[in-house]
């Protein structure tokens, strides 16, 4: 399915231009911060900044902005939005740094590192690292009947029933969404976010 290029607007308000959001596997890229992507807040790379960012940090920032465009069932979280990570230590560490003292839609952000056999219902977001290949089927099956937003970083994650998949292809971060898996979890994902994603089915 065709990957979409995303137009970014710089902080000065000058006309939009297409920026290359490259995040190499080993090399570092510069990052100026988080800006509007059309109407969606995602991660942008500004060539004029001296700050450097690694892939796991970009994924963490991407995820924290992405959840702004997901609506959970009423009563979910009770004042907190808990992000659980399994097998994604570096991304989990980056999430903890970025989420410290922050809130989303009035809910305090909490990041917890979970074991593969943890109670998944304790969180609203579950980030599953690529090291969890042998546990992936079990994790997705246990999350299937919950309102947990499952986020992965491996090929085929969405086709196996995961909801959002973050991938690096040719040095670029892109994301896939499985709308049917989101609907099954009673999660509403913004149509604006869906318009920027590669949509997949399965699971």
Can you give a write-up of this model?
The protein is globular and about 35 Å long. 20% of the residues lie in helices and 30% in strands. It starts with 6 loop residues before the first strand and ends with a strand. A hairpin with a 2-residue loop joins β4 and β5 (40-44). The protein has 203 residues and is of the alpha/beta class. The protein has helices spanning 55-66, 89-99, 136-143, 179-184, 191-194; strands at residues 7-8, 17-18, 29-30, 33-37, 40-44, 52-53, 70-71, 80-86, 103-104, 107-113, 125-128, 149-152, 164-169, 172-177, 188-189, 198-199. It has one domain: 3-Layer(aba) Sandwich (Rossmann fold). The chain contains five helices and 16 strands. The strands form five sheets. Strands 9-10-8-11-12-13-14-16 form an eight-stranded mixed beta sheet. Residues 1-52 have low confidence and may be disordered.
């Amino acid at each position: 399915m065709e990957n979409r290029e995303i137009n970014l607007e710089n902080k000065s308000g000058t006309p939009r231009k297409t920026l290359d959001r490259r995040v190499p596997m080993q090399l570092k890229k510069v990052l100026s911060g988080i800006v509007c992507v059309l109407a969606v807040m995602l991660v942008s790379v500004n060539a004029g900044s001296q700050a450097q960012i690694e892939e796991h940090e970009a994924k963490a920032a991407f995820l924290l902005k992405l959840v702004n465009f997901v609506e959970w069932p009423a009563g979910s979280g009770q004042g907190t939005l808990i992000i659980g990570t399994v097998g994604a230590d570096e991304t989990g560490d980056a999430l903890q740094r970025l989420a410290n003292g922050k809130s989303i839609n009035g809910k305090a952000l909490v990041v917890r590192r979970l074991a593969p056999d943890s109670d998944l219902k304790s969180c609203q977001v579950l980030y599953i690292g690529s090291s969890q290949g042998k546990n992936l089927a079990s994790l997705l099956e246990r999350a299937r009947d919950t309102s947990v937003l499952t986020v992965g970083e491996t090929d085929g994650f969405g086709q196996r029933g995961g909801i959002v998949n973050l991938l690096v292809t040719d040095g670029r971060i892109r994301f896939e969404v499985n709308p049917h898996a989101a609907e099954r979890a009673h999660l509403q994902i913004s149509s604006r976010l869906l318009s920027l994603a590669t949509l997949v089915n399965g699971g």
